[in-house]
Design brief:
Layout (H helix, E strand, L loop, with lengths): L15 H6 L22 H12 L3
């Protein structure tokens, strides 16, 4: 499991392993989704599939 610390300005650095796994690079935008009660957790693999699907325009 990777962790990140929030700075006093509210910023975080996404750990390198996570950036690599999600193919996140400079200039990419990241959306944070709160997972609350009643929602299923999503695996990194499922997120990657969704990212690839959206990037391909399907």
């Amino acid at each position: 499991m990777s962790t990140a610390t929030v700075t006093s300005k509210g910023q975080i650095t996404i750990p390198a392993a996570i950036r690599s796994d999600l193919h996140i690079g400079p200039g990419d935008r990241v959306e944070f989704v709160r997972v609350g009660d009643g929602r299923k957790p999503v695996s990194v693999e499922a997120m990657n599939r969704a990212i690839r699907k959206r990037a391909s325009g399907r």
